[in-house]
UniProtKB/TrEMBL annotation, chain A:
Protein name: Aspartyl/glutamyl-tRNA(Asn/Gln) amidotransferase subunit B
HAMAP family: GatB
UniProt record similarity statement: Belongs to the GatB/GatE family. GatB subfamily.
GO molecular function: asparaginyl-tRNA synthase (glutamine-hydrolyzing) activity; ATP binding; glutaminyl-tRNA synthase (glutamine-hydrolyzing) activity; transferase activity
Species, as recorded: Acetobacter malorum
UniProtKB/TrEMBL annotation, chain B:
Species of origin: Acetobacter malorum
Top EC group: ligase
Official protein name in the record: Aspartyl/glutamyl-tRNA(Asn/Gln) amidotransferase subunit C
Described purpose of this protein according to its UniProt entry: Allows the formation of correctly charged Asn-tRNA(Asn) or Gln-tRNA(Gln) through the transamidation of misacylated Asp-tRNA(Asn) or Glu-tRNA(Gln) in organisms which lack either or both of asparaginyl-tRNA or glutaminyl-tRNA synthetases. The reaction takes place in the presence of glutamine and ATP through an activated phospho-Asp-tRNA(Asn) or phospho-Glu-tRNA(Gln).
Family designation: Belongs to the GatC family.
């Protein structure tokens, strides 16, 4: 454990648990048939259920249940065949019902684990306590009127998964790694798009500090942090604040706080006295949710390959290093692109082109893997041209740049520009003769023992053939001629 | 069981009901009566009986994931005590 806060009274370690709210990918809401599309006109995607009109009854969306189960399976977690919905009671202007339908006592998913990788390559297991389904609230807009807040209920009733971790996190970096890994798994599963800017993934951060070997001390919850960087910053400043309180003889209050990134501080959000008295009780409108093991098995069989499994397979199937495989599987679209390029070809060559020249070209042109000017098939064909000796590695760079610029296929470019590799030994021999005549002095030096000049001759011959000569043939022929 | 004044005040606060001190004792008595009446249920021995969750025996009905509702902003807003353009409005709430 490397992260400690050095206080006046000694070293403190931090204890962090995360509650992540992930919006479930579905067409309609958890308990109503209104659309979930992001960015629609205010209040246009609101049904009478979402606006909590009297007498309206919730009916659960089967796909949302399936998404929660898939996520549970992806987190190696226990799936409960019977779960229930409770009412979490509180009053707020973004919550028309006056309660949120959530799963308190009987969640659909229980204990699981996530393996996270730290920057030093170390793998750590972080426990998952539970995952449950609940309704999202509406949105309040405060900047339109000096005395009023505007209420948009489009998000009201959208399905969320709350994914709660064990207090296993001991460093801000681990919190970042956990969130990135969780987001990666959700995106692979297609159960949440993981878009933190649009609010489809948000984190509540529980932070406490303690001296080594102590039991847990009082924690504070920092609500609704909406980026991975802010989560890590919030943990640092909140932990420092708590150390200062304990060391000055004070007592940390259990409370909900907000992180203000502009000021780099957390501040209290709701006072302790009426926080968290939610008076949960079973929702009388909803019977227990009962699912069949056979259905869970069916969902499990249809799960996509997840990042850890894919990484291991890339390593063994394509013979590439663990690190490179990790870069490729970070995004499913990159992994798919790579696999199309590498299938039936040299996996190592493929990874160096994808993570090297292709990534550089995407960066330069401001494109993504989805909008890449060079398709995976085209890049694959170019590797074929290298493999069958049509072009050499150096010419390939030129061909690739042309592909980026024009979007044409590699064969067409090779033909158009006459880049076919010279394997005709007659042409190569002639080039060597010419170079040796032009540089007779260097030939003499070489023959008197200056071996280092060999590279110079190779360079000159390649230049003479406009870079198109087969390097292996040049090496062989040059050696025998110079040493003759 | 008997409800005290502090708890009565707390329940009112959680329910966002404003009570004058003069009303408190009356409300306390009424609530206490209701709770006492409901509390008779505790006389039944339910040791080992699983909680009853409803009168129906079947499990929760599930619907398919299709958009069938929404697009009724005018109807919904027509019931709002206060609105502005496409929004409901409420007294400013900023934390």
């Amino acid at each position: 454990m490397s992260y400690v806060i050095e206080g006046k009274t000694g070293s403190w370690e931090i204890v962090v648990g995360l509650e992540v709210h992930a919006q479930i990918v579905s067409k309609s809401k958890l308990f109503s048939g209104a659309s979930t599309t992001f960015g629609a006109e205010p209040n246009s995607q609101v049904s009478l259920v979402d606006a909590a009109f009297p007498g309206m009854l919730p009916v659960i969306n089967k796909e949302c249940v399936a998404q929660a189960v898939r996520t549970g399976l992806g987190l190696n977690a226990r799936i409960y065949l019977e779960s229930r919905f409770d009412r979490k009671n509180y009053f707020y202007a973004d919550l028309p019902q006056g309660y949120q339908i959530s799963q308190f006592a009987h969640p659909i998913v229980g204990e699981g684990t996530i393996d996270i990788e730290l920057s030093n390559g170390e793998i750590r297991k972080i426990g998952i306590t539970r995952l449950h389904m609940e309704q999202d609230a509406g949105k309040l807009i405060h900047d339109q009127d000096p005395t009023k807040s505007m209420v948009d209920l489009n998000r009201s009733g959208v399905a969320l998964m709350e994914i709660v971790s064990e207090p296993d996190i001991r460093e801000p970096e681990e919190a970042g790694a956990y969130l990135r890994k969780l987001r990666q798994i959700l995106r692979y599963l297609g159960t949440c798009d993981g878009n933190m800017e649009e609010g489809s993934m948000r984190a509540d951060v529980n932070v406490s500090v303690r001296k080594a070997g102590e039991p847990f001390r009082t924690r504070c919850e920092i609500k609704n942090v909406n980026s991975i960087r802010f989560v890590m910053q919030a943990i640092e400043v909140e932990a420092a604040r708590q150390v200062e309180i304990w060391e000055s003889g004070g007592e940390v209050d259990q409370e909900t706080r907000l992180f203000d990134p502009a000021r780099g501080e957390t501040r209290t959000m709701r006072s302790k006295e009426d926080a968290h008295d939610y008076r949960y009780f079973p929702d009388p409108d909803l019977l227990p949710l009962v699912i069949e093991q056979a259905w869970v098995d069916e969902l499990k069989a249809a799960l996509p390959e997840l990042p850890d499994a894919k990484r291991a397979r890339f390593q063994s199937e394509y013979g590439i290093p663990f690190y490179d495989a990790g870069v490729l599987v970070a995004e499913q679209s990159v992994a798919d692109f790579y696999e199309t390029v590498a299938k039936g070809r040299d996996g190592k060559l493929a990874v160096s082109w994808v993570t090297g020249d292709l990534f550089a070209a995407l960066n330069r042109t401001g494109k993504t893997i989805e909008t890449s000017p060079v398709s995976a098939d085209a890049l694959g064909k170019m590797l074929d041209l290298i493999a069958d000796g049509t072009i050499n590695g150096k010419i390939a760079k030129e061909v690739f740049e042309d592909m980026v610029e024009t979007g044409e296929g590699p064969e067409a470019i090779v033909e158009k520009k006459g880049l076919r590799q010279v394997t005709d030994t007659g042409v190569i021999d002639a080039a060597i003769e010419s170079v040796m005549t032009k540089h007779a002095d260097k030939v003499a030096e070489y023959r008197s023992g200056k071996d280092k000049l060999f590279g110079f001759f190779v360079g000159q011959v390649m230049k003479e053939t406009k870079g198109k000569a087969n390097p292996a043939l040049v090496n062989g022929a040059l050696k025998s001629k110079l040493d003759a | 069981m008997s409800l005290d004044l502090a708890t009565t005040r707390r329940i009112a606060k959680l329910a966002r009901i404003g009570l004058e001190d003069a009303e408190l004792e009356t409300v306390r008595q009424k609530l206490d009566g209701i709770l006492g009446w409901v509390d008779q249920l505790s006389e039944v021995d339910v040791e080992g009986v699983p909680p009853m969750v409803g009168t129906e025996t079947e499990a929760l009905r599930q619907r398919d994931d299709v958009v069938t509702d929404g697009n009724c902003r005018d109807a919904i807003l027509s019931c709002a005590p206060e609105k502005s353009g496409p929004f409901y409005t409420v007294p400013k709430v900023v934390e």
